[in-house]
Each structure stands twice: as C-alpha cells, then as structure tokens.
Structure to design on (756 residues):
DNA sequence: TATGAATGAGCGTTCATTCAT
DNA sequence: TATGAATGAACGCTCATTCAT
C-alpha cells in the first residue's frame, strides 16, 4: 500500500471513530483518548493528523454544515421568506442540537489568520455567497448590497440560535423567531 | 460586626482581589488560587461564595457591563444613528478587548434555567430595555416593535464583535461596520 | 426550662437527626452538616455536645450494641455451642451490615486513654464479662480462664466478620465459620 | 529503553520516593504531592500508576509484609510455641508501629472483589499458607485442620495488635499476650 | 508515521473543626 | 450554650498535548 494511502486510511479511521462516538455521546463528551482507542491507533498518531482536538471538531462540524450547503445549493432561488426560511432551517437545527456545537461554530466562524481558514469558516463564506445570490435574485429589498443583506441574515441566525439556548426566551419557536427577523430585515415596509 | 456584614465583606475582598489581578493580567489569566491569596481567605471560602470560577467571571464581567449601562441610561435619547453608535461603543470595545471575555459573555448570554439567571444574562435584558426605549422615542423605523428592533441591534453587535476577531474581516473598523448595520436595520429606505 | 433540660433536648435532637439520616443512607454517608440541618441547630452547637464526629459514631453504634447486650444478658447460660452461637449472631450481623461500621468498631474497640473509654469500648468489656460468665458456667473447656476464653471468642468474632467482607472467602457462611471457630476454641478434643 | 522498562522505572521512582518519605515521617504523614516531587514526576503520572493514594499504601505495606514472609519462609518448621512466636513477632511489631498502618492493613485485609485483590490481601493468604504448613508439620494439635489452625493464629494476631493500641490492656506485653493465645489455641490440654 | 508514557497546571471538592460574636 | 462563616490542607482528577523511542 502506498504511503499516501496509509495516511488517508488512518485519518479515515480517526474520523470514523469520532463520528461513532459522537452518535452515542454527542460532541461535547468526545475525548481524544476514546477516538484513538476506537480507531486502533496511538494517541500521538492523532496529533500527526490533526493540529489539535479543535481541528478535528472543525472538520467534523464543518463537514456536517457543508452537507446542508450541498443540499440548499441545488434549490431554486427562494421567491419568498417562507421558502428562504425552509432552506435555512436544517443548519439552524444542527446548530441548536448542542450548546457545545454552537460554541465551536462561533469560535471558528472567524479565522485566526488568513493562512489557516478552517472548514467551518469556509462554510460561513460559502453560506454567505449562496444567500447573497438568492437575495440578489429574489424579491427582497434592494436598497443595500446582497452581501450586507446576507451578513445580516447570518447575524439573525446566530441570534435566533443563541436565544434558543436562553431560558428567558424559550417560549418563542426558533422558526417563528427567524421568520420575524427575516421579514423585518429583508422586507421592511 | 453583624454576620451578614462579615459575609459581604469577604465577598467584597474576593471581588477586589480579582479585579486587581485582572487589571494586571487580564481576565483569561485569572486564577482562583491567586484570588484567594490576594483576598487573604481560604480556598474553601471562595467556593462558599461562588459556585465555580465561571460564576465569578459572570459577576465581574456583568458588573463591568452594568457600569456601561448605568452611563448610557443617563443619556438623552439618541436622535440619530451616530449618537446611538456612540452610546453603544463603550460596551462593544469592552467585549472586544479579550477574546476570552467575548466567549464568557456569549456563554452566559443565555440562562440555563430561570432560577439562575446570571449577572451577564441580566445585563442583556437591561440593555435590550434601554435600547428599545430609545428606539421607540427616537426617529427610527416604526414598522416593527421597539423590542424587536432592539433585539436586532443586539444581534448586530454580536456580529460586529465576532467579525472583529476574524482575520477575514479585520480590515473594516468595528465602528464602521456597526454604523452600516444600524443604518440598514434602523433606517431602511 | 432548666438549662440542663435544654442541653439534653438539643443532644437528643442531634441524636435523633443522626439516626434518621442513618436509616436512609447508612453510617458512612453521615455528614455533620446534614445532622445539624435536620436537628435545626448550628454547626458549632454540634461540637459543644460531641467532641468530634467520631464521638457521635461511638455513641450511636455503642447504643446499638448495648441493645444487643441487653437482650443476651437476660438469656439463660447457653449449654452448648449452638445456643452460644445464636446469642452472638445479632451483634455479628450488625457489624456486618456496613464495612464502615466494622471499621469504626475496630477503631474504638480499644480506648486511647483510660479516662475516656468510649461507649463501644465499654460494650466490649461488657460483652467480655457476659461471655466469660457463660463460659465459666457452661459445659466448655476449663483448662484456661473464662476471661481468656472470652477474649478468644472476641477475636474469632472479629475474624469471622472480617472474612465476611473478603471476596476471597465469601463462600462460607458467617454463621458456619463462627460455629467452626467456637467448636475448635471452646471444645478442643 | 523498552517501553515497559520505562514504565517500571517510573513506578520504581515513585515507590522509592515514598519509601524515603516514610522513613522520615512515617506512613500517616505521606503526601502524594511530596511523593511526586521527590520522584521527579508529574502528579498525573502518579495517578496513571496508582488508582489512588490507598493503592500506593497497599503496595508499600504489602511489600514490607512480604519481606517478613520471605524471611520466615526460609525458617525451619518451628518445633514449639516459642519458636513460632519468634517467627511471628517481626510482622506483629511492624503492624504495631503506627496505628495508621494497622488500620490500612485491616482495611485491605479483605478484597472488595476477586479481580482486584491487593498486595496486602495476598500477604494474608501467603501468611496463612506458611503458618498452616508449619502447624501441619510441627508438634501442634491435630484435631482440626492446619488451615483452620492458621486462621485462628491470624485472628489472635489481629487481637493482640488491637489490644496493644488499647489503653485498657496496655499493661500486658504484646509478646506475652500472643504466647498465651498460641498456647491456648495450639496446645489445649 | 507511529507509539504511548509522561506531562502539568489548576480546578473543584471535601468536610470536620474552629472561633469571634 | 448557640451561631455559622471561615478555615485549610490535600486529594482526586482532567485531558489535551508533547516527546523520546
């Protein structure tokens, strides 16, 4: 087996082990020790493949988000708030599943340096591009740039999820809150 | 000295010691061990006053934010975006000073349960109330409720600070980004 | 109410609270904090009534053992090993209920100084006296003194209970082991 | 150096450090912190080698007892009570040196489960085997099994040491008490 | 690449006991 | 006697990360 092959195989084993553990115990409880044990490799090997545990998290969560982006990229441009909302919901729900996941996403939403933009940071850019295109093409406000509009949508998504984790505001549904935001942001009187 | 007095005094000593250490080394480097040493109390005493280190952080950062709120509460209602921006800047800059501080604030921005809403969570509510009043009284859009408007301002504040910590967007000033957001949100064409 | 009365009442409240907690959670989990809370007194008060927590344990466990001694004191002198065994079983079973109880008993079986012989230590003396009388009166070996015989019975009791807590010897019943010991010790060929 | 070798060496360093500290301050005053400092290893390393402090104690005290067993294993079978007594005295004196040591021994004399029989528990078995062989070969009572005889010797040893720590019985020498027990147990008229 | 023992700073915790009021 | 805040010395533990082999 070629060296490159072995490397990829080990990396795959680590990712598979991690996914399996997350299915059972969620992201927060993931331990490097368990990952390497399930993958059948030594601890040091893990750090030969990932800079640190956070890099693994970035990969795993980023891959998940990219899956959602793949799906919505194939959609036709939403022609109203409801359609837009439906397109955004899957990733919102993913971010809501665990407070820890939300924290990781927030932490990685910006890159520490340009030369190491992580998977999650890339999904934010990709998400922004997709939404901006929609907003430019669809029947939404045109007084500000699609890029800025998309940035605002991102801000409201974060806000909606954050309030979901907040006991003080739980009474309102995530979807309804997001719909309210989109209406006010994209269709001001 | 009354019993209650003694308790309050000890608590004050702990908070003072913590503040002193933060002035020197910032929030992230704060160590419980150093706090109790400087306060001249036992470690057990610390945990009799604060559930954990995070609870102390909540108190300290919350107090700081409340200070800003005290100041802006006395201001006259802003009559334009610039005045509003000026009022919001101090707390924005505070949140920007240390990535760690921003993370703590995000973590505490929602309360886990109604019976233990922390200091930071309370400042969010107070901040929302102040801004909502301003937006209701000032010359801003009236097609949506002041409460919702204020919620949006909060969302954009988080967004602005988050992007400040992001290498991809550093080039734009925090203030300018916030101004853009406020204009688009509060004064849509 | 006379001062003496109040003192006794507080002491009784503490003992009652402790007994209640032990019924629920056993001896090992007993905490002074819980005792004073249930008794409705302050922590310091506890230490005005008991030198330390161990003194409370000594009282509680000693009282229990004295109860057994009261019962067997009324019995007729056992005329064989079986009857003797039956008389000894209740206290043996009590010592077996919790490893912690056994440890406390061992620790208190001797007194640190003559002027503070605790309740448990006294029960050992009382137990020795009762058993010695039986052995002197009953049909048991006479080549050594009843006091020494009784001391040996005590040693074998400890041994039997200790092995009860030992995974290596669990297979033999406590009662059978004790019967074997008594036969060999009191009725050598 | 092989991996296994390194592990053994670290373990040895920890044990050496502990022994050194015990020579100076005794068993009770042993602190994990001091052990790791003297051994020149990290605290985490300690807990990678020993489940807890008690496990270290078990090892240390067990090793000591095994030393005595090594010595008496080489002795010729005692032909009378006096010789037997001499053989038993060293370990008795070791158990007497510190109340704390005796407590640890009692606590570990039984194993919580078969799969984790500690060092001290093993020495009890080994001691029983050695003494049983002696009693089988020597001029002692034959009406009961050597195993049972040895068990009784063990019981009397515990009894003798326990009474040594007891103010009520201090006046009699440990050795004399043990001699009396052995005579009565092994040579009934 | 792979190994896996070792690192290490510090948090959280314990809880019987003391002492000033 | 009663109060209860404060004590305090360890222990246990965590667990991502490093480094010599």
């Amino acid at each position: 087996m070629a060296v490159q092959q072995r490397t990829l195989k080990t990396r795959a084993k680590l990712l598979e082990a991690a996914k399996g553990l997350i299915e059972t115990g969620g992201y927060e409880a993931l331990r490097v020790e368990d990952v390497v044990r399930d993958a059948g490799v030594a601890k040091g090997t893990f750090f030969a493949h990932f800079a640190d545990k956070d890099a693994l998290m970035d990969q795993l969560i980023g891959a998940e988000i990219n899956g959602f982006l793949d799906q919505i990229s194939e959609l036709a441009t939403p022609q109203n708030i409801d359609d837009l909302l439906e397109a955004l919901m899957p990733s919102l729900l993913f971010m809501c599943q665990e407070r820890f996941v939300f924290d990781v996403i927030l932490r990685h939403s910006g890159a520490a340096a340009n030369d190491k933009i992580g998977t999650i940071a890339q999904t934010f850019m990709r998400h922004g591009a997709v939404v901006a295109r929609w907003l430019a093409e669809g029947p939404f406000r045109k007084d500000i740039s699609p890029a800025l509009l998309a940035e605002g949508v991102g801000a409201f998504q974060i806000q909606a999820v954050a309030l979901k984790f907040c006991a003080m505001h739980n009474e309102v549904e995530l979807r309804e809150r997001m719909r309210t935001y989109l209406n006010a942001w994209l269709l001001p009187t």
In short: Chain C has two domains: 1-50, 53-186. Chains C and A do not touch (no CB pair under 8 Å).
